[in-house]
Design a protein that fits this description.
Chain A is mainly alpha-helical and 294 residues long. Helix content of chain A is 81%, strand content 0%. Chain A contains twelve helices and no strands. Chain B has 13 helices and no strands. Classes of the chains: A mainly alpha (294), B mainly alpha (288).
Chain lengths: 294, 288
């Protein structure tokens, strides 16, 4: 800009603004083009790798709606009672499996959370006793939560045999990893003053955890645990697909054998349960958090 | 100065009268809490018995698991590494396309379900229950249904991810839209814009980064889901893994598990970096 440097007094503010604006717009355009190119590259790669074919999709669409239509039971208004009874002909067995699923989720959440609770104190940098302990627990939790729970279930079915035990252990390991990480992060964010207080009055490490950390973190832990229980109910419902107990196996066989009405009956039970569990856990969580602020 | 030894008996009695809860909780509350803990212990005991958590059984299984783990090392692809790598790419492609379709479907649905865009109560109540059903059915179940409806292969997995994402993302999008800053909307309105223009210039610029970061977050979680959808035949690496496990080819199974771990870590890392750029570091950490 030779003019601007030689005669700085006559700088036109409008021209400066226009220049800056044009520069900004140009940068934005370049950014947009780069983003578009990256996105298109990803999309192309995904279409090739995922063997995505729009025609198969269009062909599949009517088949999907047809399948969903078949799932719907025949319900007539005049004979509604008997129709529903016929639809839910196997209710006793399904409810029993549902209870098993819920118990599996409950027990796995309990086991995993107890483990996560204990080890989270070693996995928080402000509380850990030794660096190697911190490193080891952190890595162990990472592996525990990064392998999908169904893969654990698939392997555990060979170790402990078909049935809910394998599923519970798989869920518990995953819960341990996922909750352990969250718990450790909560521990790292606590107020350090109570820690000092307990140490100053001669408390050892366990007493420090018990009297200065636990009271601070317990409400948050409880709320996370409820949330984890919700997730575990969903997962427990599908563990049966690999033979690890719960209502999933029944659903799996019915889908495989094309017992359409049974499929929709079980699906409805699962969805209703999941929604009920979600809503009640949300209620409890709100109450707990509400109490905290009082 | 406060002197503990200066408190007299009478003062303690007085304090007990005034603040009974400091000394002991009322009997009813204590009974309730005892009943709660007893029920809890009973439930745990029942679970232990029902699921046969005997130490012997646990020990036997752990022994078996030890054998399996020993067979997993050293990991060896057995000449199938290219096949595995291709399957990992297929998994990523499934997650990407599923999230994309889900996000595109969820974009308009999110607006329809937002209370501040469509004020009709009955409408967004109804549409939200539809989302609940889409979300309530696990992606694994959707995959099985689509495998039956459109056949084996990655398309079933893509559709399963897309459908369950439509439910989740629509809900998240509508909540993001409900939490927008009203001032910008007012500004656009004051400039004389109609309803569509208010949404386009007052709402969309505010929510778009949040929506994108939600979509990225779902992409992460879908990559995890896509790795196991293959177990029911819906494409991806899961099919190979399930086959290796069922045929007891443990050294190849461990290679696949390690590849899954690396993929998941890499995607999490990338997505976290992009999300930090989109909505700022603090917020993206809140989402994790």
């Amino acid at each position: 800009m030779p003019e601007a440097s030689s005669t700085p007094v006559t700088v036109n503010p409008v021209a400066v603004f226009e220049r800056a604006r044009a520069e900004m717009l140009r940068q934005k355009r370049v950014q947009g083009v780069i983003l578009a190119v990256v996105f298109l590259a990803c999309l192309t790669a995904a279409v090739i790798a995922g063997q995505f074919n729009i025609f198969t999709l269009i062909e599949g669409f009517p088949r999907t709606t047809e399948y969903i239509e078949k799932l719907l039971p025949v319900l007539r208004w005049e004979t509604l009672g008997t129709d529903v009874a016929e639809w839910y002909w196997n209710t006793d067995r399904w409810l029993e499996l549902l209870v098993e699923t819920l118990l599996m989720a409950f027990f796995a959440t309990l086991l995993g959370t107890v483990g996560a609770f204990v080890f989270s104190f070693f996995a928080s940098s402000n509380l850990t006793t030794a660096y190697w302990m911190y490193f080891l627990t952190r890595r162990f939790m990472e592996i525990a939560r990064s392998v999908p729970d169904l893969v654990y279930a698939l392997v555990f079915v060979f170790a402990w045999g078909l049935g809910p035990l394998a599923g519970i252990l798989a869920l518990a390991i995953h819960t341990f990893g996922a909750s352990g990480k969250l718990f450790a992060e909560v521990n790292e964010n606590i107020d350090p003053n109570p820690l000092e207080g307990v140490r100053a009055s001669g408390g050892n490490w366990v007493e420090m955890i018990r009297f200065s950390v636990v009271p601070q973190v317990l409400p948050v832990f409880a709320s996370y645990t409820l949330w984890r229980f919700e997730i575990n109910v969903r997962t427990a419902a599908v563990l049966g697909f690999v033979g690890a107990g719960g209502i999933g196996y029944e659903l799996y066989t019915n889908i495989r054998l094309s017992y359409y009405e049974d499929v929709s009956a079980i699906l409805l039970i699962i969805v209703a349960t999941v929604i009920c569990v979600d809503l009640s856990c949300e209620k409890i969580r709100h109450r707990m958090i509400g109490k905290e602020f009082l | 100065m406060l002197r503990v030894d200066a408190i007299s008996e009478a003062e303690i009695v007085e304090a007990r009268r005034r603040l009974p809860r400091v000394f002991s909780r009322p009997i009813k509350e204590r009974l309730l809490s005892w009943a709660g803990w007893t029920a809890f212990a009973g439930l745990v005991l029942y679970c232990l018995v029902r699921f046969d958590f005997s130490p012997f059984r646990l020990w036997d299984g752990a022994h078996e698991l030890g054998l399996i783990t020993r067979l997993m090392f050293p990991p060896s692809a057995g000449g199938n590494f290219d096949l595995f790598l291709w399957a990992i790419l297929e998994t990523l492609g499934m997650a990407f396309l599923g999230t994309l379709i889900g996000g595109v479907l969820a974009f308009p649905l999110g607006f329809l379900a937002a209370k501040n865009i469509v004020p009709a109560w009955i409408f967004h109540f109804g549409i939200r229950r539809v989302f609940d059903v889409l979300r309530g059915v696990d992606v694994f179940i959707w995959a099985l249904i689509f495998v039956r409806a459109i056949g084996l292969g990655p398309l079933a997995g893509i559709m399963a991810i897309a459908i369950s994402d439509t439910g989740t993302l629509s809900k998240l999008f509508s909540e993001a839209i409900e939490n927008i800053d009203g001032k910008q909307v007012e500004g656009v309105k004051a400039a004389g814009a109609n309803r569509i223009k208010v949404v386009r210039f007052g709402v969309v610029p505010q929510v778009l980064p949040v929506m994108l970061s939600f979509a990225l977050y779902m992409f992460e979680s879908n990559v995890r889901a896509a790795t196991i959808l293959g177990i029911v035949g819906a494409g991806g690496i899961g099919l190979l893994l399930a086959d290796r496990i069922r045929a007891h080819v443990w050294d190849q199974a461990s290679v696949i598990i390690i590849m899954i771990l690396i993929t998941v870590y890499a995607i999490d890392f990338l997505s976290k970096k992009i999300r930090e750029r989109l909505i700022g570091k603090g917020k993206s950490e809140l989402m994790n």
